[in-house]
Amino acid sequence: MFIGHYSTALIAATSPRAPRLGTLFVAAQLVDLAFFSFVLLGVEHMRLVPGITAMNPMDLYEMPWTHSLAGAIGWAAGFALLLWLWRRNSAAALIGGAVALSHWLIDLLVHRPDLTLAGGPPPFGLSLWNHPAIEMPLELAMAFGALAWFTARTRGPWIPVTTLAVAMAAFQAFNWFGPEPATIVDPPPPSLAILGLVAYVLLALLAWWVSRTRALKIGS
C-alpha cells in the first residue's frame, strides 16, 4: 500500500491527545522511509521483477531491519520514545508509536510473502497486490474514508486539505499506473528510492500545513 497507510494517521489525528497530523504522516511511513534510506545505503535490498505481482514489480527480498515485525516494533518504539522526549506526553507517544507499527500490519494485507517476524523464514503476506479489483478500492476507501473522517471532525479552510487530497490521489495514480520495467532491474536505480522519499516528505509537509490550518471541533 501507499496512501492507505495514511488512514491510521488521519484517524489518530482526531484525538485531542495525538501529535499533529504532519508528525503522524511521518509515523505512518516511517518503516518505508527507513527502508528506502537503507536501500540507498546498501543495507537492505530490492530488485524490479516484472510480473512478480499484478500491481507491483518490486521484489523486496532483503529487508530484515524494516519489514520484519520485530524491526517494525523497534522503529515504532524508537519513534514513541522520541515523541515522549519531545513532548513529555505519554499518550501522544503511544499514539505515534501505534501509527508507526500499523505500517507493518497494513503491509501484511497487500505484500506477497516477503514480510517476516524477525528477519528469517517463514515469510508472510496476503498478496492483495495480485488482486487489483480488491486492493485498489480498499486502498482508496481507507485513505479517503479516513480523510473524510478527519475533515468532518476538524474545522478550517478547505484549500490545504483539498491540496493534500489531490496530492495523495496523484501520487497513488503514479504508483499504480506509472511505467514498469520490461526486464529485471537489479539493483534498481537510486532515483527510485529517492522518488519514494521525496513523495513521503512532500505529503508529510502538506499534512503539516493542514494541521496548522485546521483545529478539532469541540466535542470531537
Q: Can I get a quick summary?
A:
The chain has 8 helices and 4 strands, in the order αααββαααβααβ.
Write the layout of secondary structure elements.
Layout: H1 6-12, H2 21-28, H3 30-41, E1 45-48, E2 58-62, H4 69-87, H5 90-110, H6 132-152, E3 154-155, H7 158-177, H8 190-213, E4 215-216
Antiparallel strand pairs: 1-2, 3-4
Helix pairs in contact: 1-2, 1-6, 2-5, 2-8, 3-8, 4-5, 7-8
Detailed description of the structure:
The protein is built from eight helices and four strands. It has helices spanning 6-12, 21-28, 30-41, 69-87, 90-110, 132-152, 158-177, 190-213, and strands at 45-48, 58-62, 154-155, 215-216. With 220 residues, it is mostly helical. The strands form two sheets. A two-stranded antiparallel ribbon has the order 1-2. The model has no long low-confidence stretch (mean pLDDT 97). α7 (158-177) runs antiparallel to α8.
Cα-atom radius of gyration: 17 Å
Stretches with pLDDT under 50, minimum 5 residues: none
Count of individual beta strands: 4
Strand/helix succession = HHHEEHHHEHHE
End-to-end separation in angstroms reads 28 Å
β-strand percent reads 5-15%
Reported for the largest beta sheet, the result is: 2 strands, antiparallel
Structural class: mainly alpha
Total tally of structural domains: 1
Biggest sheet strand line-up: 1-2
- Principal-axes shape call: globular
Helix content: 55-70%
Tally the helices. Answer: 8
* Nearest-integer average pLDDT: 97
